[in-house]
Amino acid sequence: MSKPVVVAEVVRSGFVEGRHHGSVVALEADGSVAWRVGDAESQVFPRSCNKPVQALGMLRAGLDLDGELLALACASHSGEAFHLDGVRKILAAAGLDESALQTPPDYPLDEVARDEVVRSGGVRTSLHMNCSGKHAAVLATCVVNGWETASYLSPDHPLQVAIRETFEDLTGEVVEMVAVDGCGAPLLSTSLTGLARAFSRLSLATEGPERRIAQAIRQHPEYVSGSRRDEAKLLHAVPGAIAKAGAESVYAVGLPDGRAVASKTDDGAPRARPVVMAEALRRLGVLAGEGVDAAAVEETGQMVLLGGGRPVGSVRAVF
Q1: Which residues are 33's β-sheet partners?
Q2: 0.90 cut: is pTM over it?
Q3: What CATH number did the domain enclosing 215 receive?
């Protein structure tokens, strides 16, 4: 990212003690750029924001999932009990179990769920890792097609090739870089504009696998993230929206009318991510939309700083 700008300030006791640089782009329903700040054209790694598009590639390749299990295939889940049960169901339907997962062992993302595991004497597992829903869906797609499951993380695997084709189709851009994501899967690059374009296309879909992805996210937001996550709160506050957050402070939202927003902060700080998105949605006029809980959207963008155990400042958007 060559031209990030200041998108948020860290204010403590009235003093600006730090700044987050980043980029944001908002698209109109027709795909044109409504506005942008920073660099929305250079390619970035959208990290887990890619998951709904990856899941679309799986559906196009023959995966038969819907509802909460399809939402889980798009998820960076919190590791709550209902997430783990869902991953097991996806695997069992394919005749597999947890041993087939190649996600690195981890604790749940959710602090409450993590503490429960630790208190019970549990250890890091591949099932608890937040990408296990996607990996389970990948394995199920391999089984449907008779593809080898042991090598499913290879960029040359037939499914990963199909996912890349879908990704380039939806973003409208050629992938310039393929890396290894935190879960070990291939990580495809695109620009923030390309990412927003993909979410716009999913949001506007009226039929086919694109529509199935959008509906799964809309109807089961807790499965896409977790019951205590800001992403789920945002989806409840903006009816018909789809959203996905990723590591390195990337965030994408598609609105039911086809408008879309994608953002990234250059330092990857997670605290800035919801602050920037809430401001972007306000600037796009979303908070004034029919049925939108504006107060709830604004609440997702509140990041309070503590001093001596009490609020003394905040992270605020400045674009």
Answers
A1: 27
A2: yes
A3: 3.40.710
